[in-house]
Specification:
Blueprint lengths: L6 H10 L5 E3 L2 H9 L4 E3 L17 E4 L3 H13 L5 E5 L6 H6 L4 E3 L1 H13 L17 E7 L9 E2 H4 L1 H5 L2 E7 L2 E4 L6 E2 L4 E7 H10 L9 E4 L3 H12 L4 E5 L8 E2 L5 H6 L7 E4 L4 H14 L5 E5 L5 H7 L3 E4 H13 L11 E6 L12 H7 L2 E7 L2 E3 L13 E7 H11 L10
Parallel strand pairs: 1-2, 3-4, 4-5, 12-13, 12-15, 13-14, 15-16, 16-17
Antiparallel strand pairs: 6-11, 7-10, 8-9, 8-11, 18-21, 19-20, 19-21
Length: 431
Amino acid sequence: RHGPAIESLLMEFKRSGTPFVIYEEDMQLAQTLRDRKFSVVFGKLGQDPSVLANVKDARAVVTLGNDHANATCAILAREAGFTGQIFALAREPLYRAPMLRLGATDVFTPAHVLGGALASRASLRISPPAEGMHLLGTKIGLTEFRIRPDSPLAEKRLGDLNLRHQHGVSVIGQWHGGAFTTTQGPETLLRAGAILIVVGPLANLEKVERMAMPIRRSGSIVVAGYGAVGFKVAQMLRDVGETCTVIDIRPIGGVDVVGNVLEFDTLKQARVREASAIILALSDDSEAIFATAAVRDYAPEVPLIVRVSRTHNTERMYRSGADFAISEGEVAGKILAYHLLDEQLVPVENGIRITRLGVGNLEGWHPWRTEVRERSGANIIAIERGGEALMEFAKDFQISPDDVLLVCGTIQDLERFQREFQTAPLAAPHA
């Protein structure tokens, strides 16, 4: 069947030249797909299983009807002689085992993965900003700042700001338009409205905080919409001990504020302006776009995370004021492209990691030499020397053979750093 959950996957198929055919039971939708130049087979599987007669020649089967239809498709495909992989997209995790028994190779629940992605952008308890922060000790921190349009950082190049030499901090990267990019040298432009990831001594971070705007980490996380995705978001947040306030128009169990998220009285009752984040988990994109604009106007400083139903509406959410927006189709597409196209899995979140590396061929270099970041995308944020982590370096400082480098970046950046400079990971010292 066709649906929002595979729109991005079909675009990947077209981009890669992978042939596919859509089986559809809705005549009007089948005609629309044919008009879009898709290959379509129309029929009613329950009445005429012969519509799957040629499935045995397929490379793989993806089924995303309702859970009962998915199970029927899996068993009929096996009966037709198909021996390849069958991937089912399920709405309810409890149906995973029966689908596997009836012939599915694997069963995914994109709505729940989407819920996890949304929750992880709101809570550091679910998605810590950097794996390995403990290596830096208690005097060094990593934090997020939103760049206000009137900030002296806005629309400035990193090289012109010289934050490392003037303030002793390293900008790891920035979130903008839902994409995380690591800094790529002095020409990196810090965008108004972007969220900076910055690491450095705590006292120095306070100086940069005054130039930008800190992301508030106290206050309840407000979840608007209590359908399948909103329920999963709230469940995950509460499971890790976050205070969560749920808004929904229906007076059902688990809802804290009954009302319309488009109305300021509802937002006031939910104390949105005091929240650490608000997650819009609405199922209708038109309502979500309007709600995004309304919430951004009412609470301009609160991080705003938005669920999108159809992938093509994601950019509209950003134009309406979202800090982070993601669609179920995007999540499902990434999962299925990994299994069907032999592509490297692109994570929903770009995890930042800090690791200990040997000096390699960087002996005699200054840790902040621009070429380090330009060639790898990673940053040397500290040097272990004599049992102490150093983060501020004089102009004549040089890396010594016995030093340990503390390097920060995405997994891909760190792999590139090791290749470029012939360094190797070192075990962390015992606490």
